[in-house]
Design a protein that fits this description.
alpha+beta; Immunoglobulin-like; 8 helices
């Protein structure tokens, strides 16, 4: 009895080992009945130990698997691991069709595993049916349909339109630069000038604006004196050529003592002292005091202004561009590159238009 158990155990062990090393090939078909020209799939599954080299039968596109059945394409094999990666199942799919009505018997599918051939256990069959046509009814038989033009779509034409606009702009720019280069004229040849206004005129315009804003009679004396003294500081900076905007009132008067008489500076000194009291000591002024300081500012500007000779000034000037040999070479090279790019754009645009109209 013990010997029988040992023999049974050994047989079972060999059975398990042989099952693990066994290669199983299975083949099936998606549909066994199709009409002429329809397609169906043939699936081949191979079960083998992991790491084995599996080779499926290879067919080129439109190659016949058997006479009457054509292979349209083969998919990439799909791999699935089993038993903790010890076994694997590979699946290969063939897409087939037929254009002759008949019943086709497909022989077992052959697979090579490590160079040894294995075949599927079952045969496959495929029945290809023809389309029944009632020849008594002529209307049921249709001839070839005429060609149909595709529908108009803006998405197809947008790239062509944008390329056309870019091509037009580049061509105009290229022609302009070439003409300017040939005639030896500058590319950008005009510069607009800003009209020069005398410092005293600028100051009087600002004082007129202060009057117009009615700041003289405003309760906000700080704002009034800030604008008035800033106008005077700007005038003094441009008239006497020192940075009065960054100086204190005392420093400004000291710089002006070398240029103006003491009588003119006395009233100006009083104006700056009043402005400092208003801005920093919250001093409150009367309306007549504001008027007097405004008159002081106007009189000081009139006493110290310099009347400039009025000359007609151009609003723009013409620049004569002198190009060196290197500059001309760079410009010519740039023109050549742009010209080549335009030619490429024209070819591509013609290519797109050709395929839009055919």
């Amino acid at each position: 009895m013990k010997r029988i158990r040992i023999i049974g155990f050994i047989a079972a062990l060999f059975g398990v080992v042989s099952l693990q090393a066994q290669v199983i090939v299975d083949a099936k078909i998606d549909s066994t009945r199709i009409l002429i020209g329809q397609q169906t799939g043939i699936i081949v599954d191979v079960s083998a130990d992991a790491g084995k080299n599996v080779e499926f039968m290879h067919y080129d596109s439109l190659q016949q698997m058997i006479p009457g059945i054509e292979v349209l394409k083969m998919s990439e094999p799909d791999t699935q691991l089993l038993n903790d990666g010890k076994r694997m199942v590979l699946t290969q799919r063939y897409l087939v069709t037929s254009f002759d009505s008949a019943l086709y018997y497909i022989p077992p599918m052959t697979v090579k595993v490590d160079g040894k051939e294995y075949q599927s256990k079952t045969n496959l069959a495929l029945k290809v049916l023809t389309v029944n046509i009632d020849t008594m009814k002529v209307d049921s038989i249709y001839s070839f349909k005429p060609e149909m033009a595709p529908q108009f779509s803006w998405d197809d034409w947008k790239p062509v339109i944008w390329l056309g606009v870019a091509l037009l702009l580049l061509t105009v720019l290229l022609i302009y630069v070439v003409v300017r280069l040939i005639t030896n004229k500058p590319i950008i040849h005009r510069i607009k000038l800003r009209q020069h206004i005398a410092p005293h005129k600028v100051a009087m315009q600002k004082i007129a604006q202060i009057k117009q804003d009615n700041l003289v009679q405003s309760e906000d004396s700080k704002e009034y004196y800030t604008q008035l003294t800033d106008t005077l500081r700007q005038y003094i900076s441009e008239r006497f050529k020192f940075n009065a905007m960054e100086m204190t009132s005392t420093e400004i008067i000291e710089h002006l003592q070398a240029e103006n008489d003491e009588e003119a500076l006395r009233e100006l000194r009083e104006l700056f002292q009043t402005a400092d009291l208003v801005k920093f000591a919250k001093y409150t002024t009367l309306i007549n005091e504001n008027d007097r300081n405004l008159v002081t500012a106007v009189e000081y500007i009139n006493q110290t202004k310099i009347e400039e000779e009025i000359k007609p000034q151009p609003t723009e000037i013409v620049v004569e561009e002198k190009r060196s040999k290197i500059a001309k070479a760079v410009l010519v090279a740039s023109i050549a590159i742009v010209a080549i790019f335009i030619i490429v754009l024209i070819c591509f645009l013609a290519y797109r238009l050709y395929y839009l109209f055919i």
